[in-house]
Amino acid sequence: MTVSTPGPLSLERFIVETNRAGTQTMPQGEFNELAQRLDLDDALVGAHVRFCDDHYARNLICRTAQFELLVLCWKPGQASTIHDHAGSLNVTRLYLGELTSRQFRRRDGGRGVSEVGGAASGELPHGPVELIDEQVIADSGAATVDRGEIHQLANESGSELITVHLYAPPLTDIVVYSRTEPQTEVLRLRYSLADDFA
After folding, report:
1. Contact 133, 103 (CB under 8 A)
2. 89: closest CA among 67, 56, 121, 61?
3. Could you tell me which of 86, 53, 93 has the C-alpha nearest to residue 188?
4. How far is the CA of 48 from the CAs of 27, 45, 57, 72, in angstroms?
5. C-beta neighbour count of 167 within 10 angstroms
6. Please, which residues bridge with residue 133 across strands?
7. Quick one: 11-196 is in which CATH superfamily?
């Protein structure tokens, strides 16, 4: 389904458009186009900027049945695991700083989990994985991750980094990979201390 409203989208309009289009089977290109149109004004993003000293911080802005929107804050040297998105699409937009984006593939040629809910319901893919591409993203650039792709994000710069992440459907699990070991693991994602006690 094609998005019908042209031009920039407020968060409210973005919610309407993703509900209209549905994201369960949306192609990566269509989600990328929609995500690039979301207006990331300073009031929306700035209210969710929080850094942590020992790991990058995941700060939730909005979550619906179709997508979720987060601000991730990275101090120099912080990086994500090597992971897939367990069937969710992803667009990461740069807000401040310089982002290193790495793409991986399994050494046996296979992909990561490409179906929503696949990490919980099926046999996990195995590693190890190998690096196939690395890019440094600056200015107002973006990185995308399609269903089944494996990647890692990092702040290799000497300055703070702020990125805005859109996942469709919302990201609840990731599958974590290793460059050396065949074992993988499912990691449930949390957004607050209350989630640790659920």
Report:
1. yes
2. 67
3. 86
4. 28, 6, 10, 9
5. 23
6. 103
7. Jelly Rolls (2.60.120.10)
**Residue ranges covered by each domain of the chain:** 11-196
When computed from its CA atoms, the radius of gyration of the chain, rounded to whole angstroms, is 16
Q: What is the layout of strands, in order, in the sheet containing 99-106?
A: 129-137, 99-106, 150-154, 82-84, 173-177, 185-188
The pair of structure tokens assigned to 156 is 């290799």
| Whole-number Å distance between alpha carbons of 118 and 131 | 23
Each residue of 139-195: pLDDT tens digit? 889 999 999 999 999 999 999 999 999 999 998 889 999 999 999 999 888 765 444
Pick from 168, 170, 142: nearest CA to 21: 168
Bridge-based pairing state of the strands 89-96 and 57-63: unpaired
| 8 A C-beta contact, residue 130 and residue 105 | yes
Q: What's the rounded Cα separation, in Å, for the pair 43 and 176?
A: 33
Give the closest residue to 66 by CA, choosing from 4, 138, 11, 131.
11
Identity at 52, one-letter amino acid code: C
- pLDDT score, position 2: 47
Q: The tokens of 13 are what?
A: 């309009």
Lowest mean pLDDT among 72-81, 98-107, 114-123: 114-123
> Cis ω on the peptide bond leading into residue 76 (within 30° of 0)?
no
- pTM value? 0.90
Q: Is 125 buried (19+), middle (13-18) or exposed (0-12) by CB count in 10 A?
A: buried
